[in-house]
Inverse folding.
């Protein structure tokens, strides 16, 4: 039935309705015992009548009509005393039947007797969920030199620190812990365990000067400062709020061999050959120039010192295994939701490190298996303890829902191999490679690609 008719019928219990659209099917329903014949009164309006119908009929007329067979409609039309109305009604019914009942008889009969209010509520819910999905599938924090600003906001809100603790990075889950069930492990402890495992991977031995590139709240910086009490630790970040919070926590914990500074990792103010250990945990994702990122960290590293990097990486794209359209869409969402300019592969990190001509014994690994649980574990800790979010109000509710969606999409990307958890480490040579050697090695990837 044309929507304008339905709107009029359901809007008014009693009202002026077009006679052509009403007489035939109300008579039809009367023959079927749905209601009494409509009471018709004349009107000064041309070709209109006042039709008085029970409110129950107004609610049910549209679905009842959709479920009737054409022979019923014919009977109703024959019973009509107005030949013109009958002809018009037949045409209207045929159009209605084609529009509403073209799928199958059983399909139309399935809605007979269903209250339109219920159908409308279901449809409304469906549209709401569809609209919400469209919103959540549209990234909201595209990279625009806004990393410091985003981390300032996360720091001030306090939600991230409440759930993730002092460490804004994934946790580490041993094979035994995974076998027992990752939810049995303390989520924040998993972060400390990650730092210890990353230190083992680096191979660094008793460093005296440590640089934490992209230090966040300074959890790793303080942990390393406590572990190496005779060392001096410096953490750098683009977020003034993180520097403030990291310094505050260091004072509370009485860690006096650590300090924090606002500094761009791509243009560090430190002299060459300053640090024994350069530590970069999940900061490379935000770097708009990965090559410069590796080169700057190598520059400030002392000869014989260690560079260790942990970074979310996309898998290596090759001619044999190109990214599909969906892969590219998924990656773009991950770039644009958490202010990432782009990701690179573990293999590309290895090429960049070797390409400096200054790093030797470069090694890499993929820690997907032992970090994957973090994504969903971080969701569950919020489910178990939602109150900080509840009391923050609607803006944080909405933002938290977005974070949950992104955490799940990160989990899926890592689980299906589109993303990999890259671990890279190397030692700065006591004597840099000759310029000719460096140039040759740096050109090798381009030569292969050509």
């Amino acid at each position: 039935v044309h929507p304008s008719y339905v709107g009029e019928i359901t809007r008014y219990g009693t009202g002026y309705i077009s006679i052509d659209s009403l007489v035939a099917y109300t008579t039809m329903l009367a023959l079927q015992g749905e209601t009494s014949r409509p009471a018709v009164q004349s009107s000064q309006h041309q070709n209109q009548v006042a039709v008085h119908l029970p409110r129950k009929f107004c609610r049910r007329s549209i679905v009842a009509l959709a479920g009737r067979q054409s022979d019923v409609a014919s009977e109703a039309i024959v019973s009509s005393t107005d030949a013109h109305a009958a002809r018009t009604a037949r045409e209207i019914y045929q159009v209605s039947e084609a529009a509403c009942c073209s799928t199958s008889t059983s399909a139309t009969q399935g809605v007979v007797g269903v209250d339109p209010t219920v159908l409308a509520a279901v449809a409304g819910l469906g549209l709401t969920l569809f609209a919400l999905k469209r919103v959540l599938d549209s990234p909201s924090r595209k990279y625009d030199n806004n990393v410091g600003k985003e981390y300032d906001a996360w720091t001030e809100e306090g939600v991230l620190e409440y759930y993730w603790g002092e460490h804004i990075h994934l946790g580490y889950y041993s094979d035994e812990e995974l076998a027992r069930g990752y939810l049995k492990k303390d989520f924040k402890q998993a972060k400390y365990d990650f730092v210890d495992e990353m230190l083992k991977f680096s191979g660094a031995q008793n460093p005296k000067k440590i640089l934490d590139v992209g230090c966040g709240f300074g959890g790793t910086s303080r942990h390393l400062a406590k572990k190496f009490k005779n060392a001096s630790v410096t953490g750098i970040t683009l977020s003034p709020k993180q520097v403030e919070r990291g310094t505050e926590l260091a004072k509370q914990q009485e860690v006096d061999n650590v300090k924090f500074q606002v500094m761009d990792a791509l243009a560090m103010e430190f002299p060459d050959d300053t640090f024994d250990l350069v530590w970069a945990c999940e900061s490379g994702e935000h770097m708009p120039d990965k090559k410069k990122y590796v080169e700057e960290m190598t520059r400030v590293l002392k000869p014989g010192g260690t560079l260790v990097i942990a970074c979310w990486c996309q898998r290596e794209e090759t001619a044999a295994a190109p990214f599909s359209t969906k892969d590219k869409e998924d990656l773009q969402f991950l770039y644009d939701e958490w202010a990432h300019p782009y990701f690179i592969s573990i293999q590309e990190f290895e090429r960049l490190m070797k390409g400096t001509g200054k790093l030797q014994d470069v090694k890499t690994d993929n820690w997907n298996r032992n970090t994957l649980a973090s994504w969903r574990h971080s969701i569950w800790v919020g489910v178990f303890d939602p109150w900080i979010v509840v009391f923050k109000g609607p803006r944080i509710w909405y933002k938290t829902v977005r974070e949950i969606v992104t955490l799940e999409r990160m989990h899926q990307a890592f689980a299906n191999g589109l993303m990999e958890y890259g671990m890279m480490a190397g030692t700065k040579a006591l004597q840099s490679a000759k310029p000719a050697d460096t140039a040759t090695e740096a050109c090798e990837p381009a030569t292969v690609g050509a």
User: Anything to note?
Assistant: The first strand starts at residue 14 and ends at 18.
